[in-house]
Write a structure and sequence with these properties.
four-stranded antiparallel beta sheet; single chain; Gyrase A, domain 2
Amino acid sequence: MTITPDPKVENGATFEILREDHTMGNLIRFKLLEEPQVIFAGYKVPHPLEHNVILKVQTTNDTKPDMMVAKALNDLITEVGYLKQKFVEELGRARALVIPREQKPMEEQTPLGIPPRDNIPIGNTGVGVDMDF
């Protein structure tokens, strides 16, 4: 990430984030705009074939843009960690609800709802096609 202070805008800076796209740019922008110290936050992807995001941030006089971007990134890391934790917990609950099939030798197992092979009619199946070879 490269940070370039904006000489035309007080407390403004441009951040170039390499190897990222709209997903990361929009997440950071959204997090920044939740903060009352952020006056402006916007991003663009210069070209669809370039995987870079250019993020522009302007803050109030009591903070700096790089500090607010760092806070937004830390908040996002915390949120993603929380989501991962909840996902793993729910996955564990879902796995506990699955009742494993009775363990039998492979020859004796039948798929659920499908009759065993010895009950399948051979020959005239009644569908207009004679399967006798």
